[in-house]
Each structure stands twice: as structure tokens, then as C-alpha cells.
Amino acid sequence: MSDALVPGSYDPITNGHIDIIERSARVFDKVWVTIFTNSSKKPLFSVEERLELIKEAVSHLDNVVVDSSEGLLVDYARERGISVVVKGLRAVSDFEYELQMAQMNKRLDPKLETFFVTTNVEYSYLSSSIIKVVVANGGSIKGLVPKHVEEALVAKLDGRGC
Amino acid sequence: MSDALVPGSYDPITNGHIDIIERSARVFDKVWVTIFTNSSKKPLFSVEERLELIKEAVSHLDNVVVDSSEGLLVDYARERGISVVVKGLRAVSDFEYELQMAQMNKRLDPKLETFFVTTNVEYSYLSSSIIKVVVANGGSIKGLVPKHVEEALVAKLDGRGC
Amino acid sequence: MSDALVPGSYDPITNGHIDIIERSARVFDKVWVTIFTNSSKKPLFSVEERLELIKEAVSHLDNVVVDSSEGLLVDYARERGISVVVKGLRAVSDFEYELQMAQMNKRLDPKLETFFVTTNVEYSYLSSSIIKVVVANGGSIKGLVPKHVEEALVAKLDGRGC
Amino acid sequence: MSDALVPGSYDPITNGHIDIIERSARVFDKVWVTIFTNSSKKPLFSVEERLELIKEAVSHLDNVVVDSSEGLLVDYARERGISVVVKGLRAVSDFEYELQMAQMNKRLDPKLETFFVTTNVEYSYLSSSIIKVVVANGGSIKGLVPKHVEEALVAKLDGRGC
Amino acid sequence: MSDALVPGSYDPITNGHIDIIERSARVFDKVWVTIFTNSSKKPLFSVEERLELIKEAVSHLDNVVVDSSEGLLVDYARERGISVVVKGLRAVSDFEYELQMAQMNKRLDPKLETFFVTTNVEYSYLSSSIIKVVVANGGSIKGLVPKHVEEALVAKLDGRGC
Amino acid sequence: MSDALVPGSYDPITNGHIDIIERSARVFDKVWVTIFTNSSKKPLFSVEERLELIKEAVSHLDNVVVDSSEGLLVDYARERGISVVVKGLRAVSDFEYELQMAQMNKRLDPKLETFFVTTNVEYSYLSSSIIKVVVANGGSIKGLVPKHVEEALVAKLDGRGC
Known about the structure:
The structure is a homohexamer.
Chain A: E1 3-8, H1 15-27, E2 31-36, H2 47-57, E3 64-69, H3 73-79, E4 82-89, H4 92-108, E5 113-118, H5 128-136, H6 147-157
């Protein structure tokens, strides 16, 4: 059976991400959770901090590997024999962007499949960005990220506005 | 590894459906292609005709089973130990309806995952309905359905309008 | 303060509808829950049955009136001094249709406002149609409609397919 | 310069349609306004009635021909040397369906272009269906259809509900 | 009856905003028009300038208060006993973002309702951003913003490009 | 017959753009391909470089003029007697933004029409942005841009990440 890749910027990991990773880990033999750093957006957490936050969040899952990469997703997958990319979908705007990326990746490597999963409805409005806005303004995000991520966010952002 | 279910009404099967089935067959151990007959829409082809058209279209795939069911998708999957439903997505309107069904199925059976795949761009505008409209008005659908499906459609519909 | 109208076909009322009605009842002085029967769709429950199911479902709300009408929504509102229509929104496709209706109603009566509310995420995938499909195929809808609606649905549909 | 085709079911023609036809008539040498009758929907007005309503509505435009056809759009266009189809777009759901039709028509005849135009914002919520619902329930549609169409609608529908 | 909050960045206020504020002022006892300054976008006008432009634009409305805040919307509303947030909706993309914010705010304060209103069709394509682009390139925005806002924009931007 | 304008930032031109330009050139007497430089986005290629890349890409089309402008689109079109703007549409999000621009341009000059065309499905996922991301990460874009554009991109971006 195939290995799967759950790529993202994970800045930071939320309960929505964890939901997708847990679902993937039930279906696939091995799941790669990989931070791709080639985006132009300036992150709040460094790659090392993000790797640590993910590792603690998925430590209960045996078949999950946490990693980061500066390269192209299709090259990363090909080198590791990964045949499936899993992406979470929340809204229509997600859908269009992800569909565009999936078609491009399909062209770059026709053997790589992209599977879309919907998050639990409870997390349907959740994103790393909205989490950062709430914490920066002193709001509570209990239940939306793991406890250690909440603490890391508060340490960086609380009271600072944004 | 998990078995997968590719449900549909397949009235009739198109190259877009076959693309999704082939992709699923590469990733999963066994793929169930199942006609669910509980829809309220009146089909053009009988269940038996649709089963025959699908069987001929997927005869090159070893790990694909063709079936039909009158029951609820989640019950069907549970009884056969199927853990993943695979659905093709073309457009935003597809996406919203399928997302609604996936959330409902998740509630009916939390262990059943729904994975969405995008069809090859070449088939992005293809549906069983549009195929029927074209044939009924004497248009050519060469390359959009297998040859034997084209013949079955022409036998039923050609020149009849719709 | 203004009275509000929560129109619908309510065939039958679901927990998603009740959520919208409760939210409206907290904000407005008086809330009209009115079945409009001028739709072309053939209902499962008669107007009388639907009125009974709604009445039992909202009996805990003091400022809610349950009614039915065969006329035009804007006339109904004008005659009762209702200044606001409240509509639930789930998905993008809802949004476009409701926006079209709201603009038309605005033209028919410029003093009538339409306010859109989002349902609780828990009910974001819920509709009267999907409820009927699930019951007709023997699935459980516990927690998605009130107990007395579940019983009425099972009495009408169970095992019948649809 | 190219001739253009503005296809539709025109059941009946509205001010939104007329807006699209007028815009096309300013850009193209000759504009064909053609009722395609191969749809499965049951119309309110007969083909002859619809042709009359359109003819009166566009009688001020010199370069517009009114016609009807039972065939396939691409065949109709090819036989008359028409190289462009013009379709009005209001909403996202329009867009997806029309895009699907445009891609299919492109495949059936690669030389036929489909151009989409947006209606005047004033008519952005207008459709033949919503017009019929309003008239059937006794509402006013003044300013949304020409006077002679309003009279034809009232003669057919007024007070009848629908 | 409830007080309502119409939040925004108002950089600057347009006729679309004023339409939403006027509608809210007809339905609610008191309407707070509040600039939230915690967005990361760099504004064209300072908070003080924006407050002045809004005050002049809504001076004909008795029950409207103009304010600004650096905090979290839900805290602001709770401290003032505001129970309803009113947001204008134009397009599908607006809808998805606003729905996400509404669900997050609902979680942060379950007693706070968000009501969505559609602007007058005449302003359906209007945004502060598009207004700034047009003025920066010397285009006319007469009828899209109040006269004093037009003058303020021209003073800041005219001929400067952007 | 009318002249048409195909505006864009063309940073750089892709096969999707060329598809739209070729279609326009078949329908209209003269086609203006014009870079508008008033966007706030920082381009990868200078205006001069972009003009050169376009000129080479459309050299096989007799009735196409390549140009750039710092002004407002409606002024540019009016001064040259251009009566139609042609824009490519790929996705729903494109559609909403372009519709907003078309309505604004219609207000600025009621005689200017905007026609939307869909690209060939083969290019439906293509954009200048995604092309730049792929090249910056060492991926192949053969078949998605003309050869000379590919070389210009590799010279600027290869191995640099982005």
C-alpha cells in the first residue's frame, strides 16, 4: 500500500491539521507530515519551532514522520516513493487553489495522486492565520490547537496586536 | 491497506469515471465500483445494462469489483470492510454537494473516510447528463466514453432529441 | 424593535432550522415561522402535518408564532408589519439563490430587509432533503431533528427507499 | 466580422436578455436570437408565443434575427457561419454550468467561440423563473420585462399560484 | 431590542457601507460604526481621518455612533452590550471569509450573532480598494462615495498612480 | 467591426494568455495586447522585457498590436476606439474579481463591453504565478509557456527558490 504526504506550512499546526493527519494515518501505511519552506509568506515560527510543535502534536501516531523541505513537492515525493498527497479542504476558495496545484503537480509527475479530505465540521472555520489574529488580540483559542501550541502562540503574540 | 468504494449512478459510465477508477486502483488494494439505485432520478439505462457497461469498461483492471446496491452507502461499506469512499470532483457545485454528503456519511459512520480526487483536466467538463444531451441531438462523443458505451447510447437515443 | 419572519418549506423542520429560529427569537421582539406553500416541489408532509411538527419543536419559545401562507412573501410581511426576513445560509449555492430572492424582494418592497445567518457548524451539512434520503434508506438521524420529527419521518419513510 | 448567436429558452424574454442582445448587436454585424427547444424542461409559453414575444422586444434592433431550432447548437451555428456564441452570466452557478457547455461545444466544434457577458447590475438577480414565481403570486414585475411580456405573463399566470 | 455593530476598516467609507449602515439603523435601536485597527493592511487614511469621513457621512442618522478600537471584536461588543454584528456581503469570496469570521466569533462569544446583509445591487461591485485604484489613475468615482470622501481621496491620490 | 483589448500584467506571458489572444484575433479585426503597469504587485520582469516576450510569442498573428500603458483601462480604450475588452476566465475566484472590474469599467465608460472567454481546458490551471513557483524550485514548465519565455524564466529564477 501507498505512503502519503500531508504537506503544509504549519505556522503553527492546528487541531484541523491534526484531524487530517490522524485520518491519513488510519488509511495509509506511512504518513509524511512535511513543512515546505518555499512559500513567499514570512512565517511566525521558525522551521525548527514548527517541527517541534508538530512532533509533540503527533507523538501518539506510530506511522507518522515529521520533516521539512526547501524543494519542489513532486521531487520530494518521488525520491521517497510517496504516491499520494493528502490535502484538507474547508471552503470553495481552498478548493480552487488546491485544484490548481493538484493539476500542476499531476503534470509535473503523472504518477502522483492528490486526495482531498474535508476536516471535521468543528474545525471547518479554522486556519493558522485566524488563530494568530485571535491570540494577538488576547482571545482564547482553547480547543482549537493543542495545549503546547497555545502556549507557544501566547509566548510569541499575546497582547502584541497584529 | 484499505479497500475503496467508488459509488455513482453511472448512467452511463464515462471516461471521467474510468479515470477516477484507474487512479483508485493504483492506490488501493481493492476497488468497489458500485451503482447505488436509491436516487430519485429516472435512469436511461437499467441497473443490469449499467453493470454490463461498467464491467466492459474496467475489464483491464484486476483489483476492481463491479456491483449494485439499493441500500445506504455507509451500511454497504461497513458490511464489506471498506474504509474509504473516493469521489471525483469537477466544479464548485459538485464540491458543495459532495462535502455535504461526506459530512453526513461521517456522522453515520465515523470510521468511513471520503477522499476527493480531481479528474484529468481533459474530462473536467464531462458528465453523464451532458453526454446524453449531445447524443440525443446527434452530436459526436468520440473520446469521451468508451466505444461500447457510445454504441449503447446511440442505440437508445440517437435522433430522439431529449 | 422589528418583528422578523423566518420563511421556509419545513418539510420537515430540522435542528438547523430550530437553531436559526432560536437565534432570531433572542434578537427580535416577535418571530413568525411561516410555511410558504407556493413552491412547485411536492412535499412529503401536508401543510397541517408540517405546522404541527414546527409547533411542537418551538413550544419552548414565547415570542414565536407558527403560520402558513399561499401568497407572496413581501405581501405577507407588509400586512403584518414585519420588517426583517431571516434566512439561514449553509453553502455558496444557498448564498447565490438567497441573494437573488433577497434582491427581488427588495425591489418588490424596499422597506423589507433580508438578514442572513449561518447555522451552527454542527448543522452545516443538514437539509430536509438529505434527512429524507437517510431515513428512507434506514439510516439514523438522531441528533439532527427533534425526537417527534424523527418518529414522524420513520412512520412515513422507513424501509421504503426513495 | 463575425456573426453572433444568443441562444436561450426565453420562457419568456426578460430585460436581462434584452440587455445582452443589445450589447451583442452593438459589437457584431448580425445577431441571431435563437430558442433551442431540446431542453427537457416543460415551458410556460409555446415556441410560437416565445418567438412573438422576442420579436416585439427586439424590433428596434436592425441587425437581429429571431429564430428557433430543435437541433444541436454547434450544428446550427456551423450551418449559418456563426463564429461566436454570447451568453449572459449572473452568478457563480451560472458560470460553472455555462463553462461546462462552452468546453463541450468547443470540443464539438473547435472553431466556435463562446463569449460571456455580464448583465447590467440592475438585472443581476433576474431570471425567467423568478419572474414567473412573482407573477403567479400576484407580484409586480414592472421594469423587469417589457410591457407586452408583462401582459402575456399576467394573462397566463395571475392569481394561479405555481 | 438589540444594539448592532457594523465593523470595518472604512479606508475610506463608500456608498456601499452607508447603504448597510442606513439599513441597520432602520432595524436596530442603536448602531455602532466601528473601525477595527488590528488588521495588518497599511491604510491610506489615518484612524482620525477615517473617523471624520464616517462622521460626516452618517450625520443624518440619529441612532448611529462612530468609534474605533484596537481590540478584539467580541470583547468590544460584550463590553457595550451589543448582541448583533451586521456585515455586508457582495460576492461568494466575501461570503466564505465572513462565514469563517462569524463562526470564530460565535465560538469566542456564543451570545453574539452575526447577520449578513446584501448591499443594493447598484453597489455590488464597490469596494474601498477598487475606489482607490480608480482615483489613483484619474478616474471618476462620482456617485460611489459621498462628495467629501471623493475630495479627500483626490487630495491624497490623484495622478499619483498606485 | 470592433477592435478588442486583451489587458494583463503578462509577467510573463503563458500559453493560456496566447490561447486567449489567438481566439480574439480570429473574431476581431484588430487586437491590442496591452500591459497595464498600475498594479501594486512588484513584477519579476520589467515592462520592456515583458513587451519583448509577448512580441515574440504573438509574431505569427497579423492583426495583433503589443503595447503598455500606465493609465486607466477605460481611458486607454476610449482614445483608441476600442469597444471590447476580452478577459480569460479560469476559476470562480477569477470570475468574481473580473466581474467586479467589468461592472466598474462599465460605469466609467458605458460604451465599453467586457467579454469573458474560457481558456482551453489544458491551460485551466495555469497562471504566471504558479509558473514562477515551479521554475524557482527547479521544476519543468515545458509546454506551458513558449520556449523563449521558458529560457527567460530559467535565466532569472532557476535554483533561486522563491
